[in-house]
């Protein structure tokens, strides 16, 4: 996929909180992530001065394309290691019949890869690491992950 489509956008509108939108750009080209951030910057400048953007790629804060590319590469490499680890494992004979066994096996395999993914996204601020969209009013999440 070269750009963004409706499968990558999540919106939430509840009466008791500010609306928010989440966009996943992980499977798009980095240029799509940059274009999205620059579009949001223009919207913020012209129309919504208090627009908040949480960019897990760090590009919103830094406009550092090389840093964004490093983070994306780190995430891609961690996912590749996870895929390779899963492919190497001989499944438990009852895993196909017992989702608990399957889940435990995947968690055991994934633990190092999940750690790698966390390291790859260390550019996020502490607030971004703990922030969940449902608890953050008027926030736009631009996520390459």
Concise account of the structure shown:
This protein has 145 residues and is of the alpha/beta class. 50% of the residues lie in helices and 12% in strands. α3 runs antiparallel to α4 (99-120).
Notes on the protein architecture:
The protein is an alpha/beta fold. Helices cover 50% and strands 12% of the residues. The protein has one domain (6-143). The protein has helices spanning 30-46, 59-62, 65-88, 99-120, 126-130, and strands spanning 9-12, 20-24, 52-55, 139-143. Strands 1-2-4-3 form a four-stranded mixed sheet. The longest helix is centred in the middle third of the chain and has 24 residues, at 65-88. Mean pLDDT is 74; it is low at 123-143.
